[in-house]
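Morning!

This is the sequence you dropped in the shared folder:
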Amino acid sequence: MSAIANTERPPMQKEQRLLNLICVIAALGLFAFVGYNFLAAGAVISTDGLFFTVVPIVIALAFLAVPAQEILTRQLEKRRIARGETVKPTAAAQKQAARAASTVPPALKLPPALKDARGRALPPDVNRMMAEMSRTEGGKQ
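The structure's back. Tokens below.
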């Protein structure tokens, strides 16, 4: 199992690096556009000048948020390891591990669909509520 997890990790890191590279290139392109606007525009303090300055800067900062988040996550993880704290898996990783551990699909664990007086299937939320109520009644007895 650990060999499978180790082989899956590098492609994800490659994708993350590619995403970071694309974001940084896009941000640099937008900053270059702002620089060109300062040099080529006659009047920077105008409606058009402010628009062509502020909007690309805001978009560039949004592009830079993706790599910054990864860098911040790495730094926080290094601090936790230096302090000796254990790194807890994320909720998504816990759910994926739980799914992999269970051999029976969740759909097969549900009770059969209930039907109304005319024989029509009840909505899934009603089935879920009835299953929860029957579990609690069974647990009390």
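Headline: The chain has a mean pLDDT of 78.

More detail when I'm at my desk.
O.
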